[in-house]
Amino acid sequence: MLTTLRFTPTWLVAGLFVLAGCGDKTPKQASAKEPVTRPPTVTVTPESTPGPTEPSPVSAAPVSFASADSAFRSKRYSDAVSGFSAYTKSKPSNPWGFYMLGLSAWKAGDLKTAEESFRQALVVDSTHVKSYLNLSRVLIEAGQPDSALGYLNTVLRIDETLGEAYRLMGRAHDAKGEVDSAITNYHEALSLDGTDVWSMNNLGLALIHQGKYDDALRPLARAVELEPGVVTFQNNLGMALERTGHFTAAADAYRSAVSLDSTFTKASVNLQRVQSLKEDPNTAPVDLKALAREFEQQIRDWNENGK
Fold first, then answer.
1. Which of 43, 86, 117, 207 is a plausible cystine mate for 212, CB 3.0–4.6 Å?
2. What is the DSSP letter of 59?
3. Does the pLDDT value for residue 261 go beyond 60?
4. Distance between CA 236 and CA 149 in Å, rounded?
5. Residue 3, number of CB atoms within 10 A of its CB
6. What does the pLDDT average to over 166-193?
7. What are phi and psi of 259, to 5 degrees?
């Protein structure tokens, strides 16, 4: 059985915890952090992080689209913005041009152009689900979660089985401080897709927000099991382990995060801190595989109960 800490050490009071943020897959390319991650330095809040991309509809577009798309894939986002800007002027009836312009502008850090481009894609095609989803991401990032929720409700009217929309609703509610609603949304997302690792990560952080550290271990353990190479998951699992007094296991998780990305200072700071802590010898060992199995059962229970 897991043993939750019953004391409040000085290092907790001092606010030295460094968590990664919440996230979701980045916009799928034609695809968060997911995602672009914007975690705060010392607090527990949501973020977005980039994820896998799917092929853009290049086959139906002229060479100028392919050229701009090549710049995007090469992470030359300013060049991609220029290319897709030119493309949308020559092909104003293709929503994909405005969609890719939105993605490119977002990656380039221009939220205003990204928002305008996604909106224009929706003028051209009011059913363009990817533009709704990524417009909502931009709005969350821009501090407009209520507007994002409006667009996400539209998405669910188009396709009520889209788990990604529920995940983003969770992020929007989390941004508003409505943690219970966010948790409900993450449950809905995971009921639709039991392998949605970003919903698992976000759910874990929401539970940490509520001080439910034992509960947070389960979704974070499962996320790391499915995607061990994501530094954010390793760091946040370390946080939950540390909060439950499993300092040795927490150090292992932080060390994994640092090995994945030596520039990820949050994990480095956390590792340095936890190594100075002495674990209570009466603390029961933690079985992360068992916790991951328990979380899989939780998802099955939510489905059976219609949650």
1. 207
2. G
3. yes
4. 26
5. 14
6. 96
7. -65, -30
pLDDT of res. 98:
97
Are the C-beta atoms of 260 and 234 separated by less than 8 Å? yes
Q: Is residue 232 part of a domain?
A: yes
Q: What is the pLDDT of residues 186-219, one digit of tens each?
A: 999 999 999 999 999 999 999 998 999 999 999 9
Q: What is the pLDDT of residue 305?
A: 79
The letter for the amino acid at 126 is S
Q: Which residues of 159-185 are buried (b: 16+ CB within 10 A; e: fewer)?
A: eeebbbbbbbbbbbbbbeeebebbbbb
pLDDT of residue 171: 97
Phi-psi region of 273 (alpha: psi -120 to 50; beta: other; left: phi over 0): alpha
CA distance 262 to 266: 10
Q: Is residue 257 part of a domain?
A: yes
For residue 25, give the DSSP letter.
P
CA angle 126, 129, 135 (to 5 degrees): 90
State the average pLDDT over residues 156-180. 96
Cβ–Cβ < 8 Å for 214, 179: no
CATH code, 230: 1.25.40.10
Asked if residues 203 and 191 have their Cβ atoms less than 8 Å apart, the reply is no
Quote the tokens at residue 273. 């801190």
Q: Would you say residue 92 lies in a domain?
A: no
Nearest to 271 by CA among 255, 286, 283, 256: 255
Query: How confident is residue 32, by pLDDT bands cut at 50, 70 and 90?
Result: very low
Which amino acid makes up residue 302?
W
Q: Does residue 90 lie within any of the structural domains? A: no
Which two tokens mark 39? 């975690």
For residue 288, the enclosing domain spans 16-55+200-307
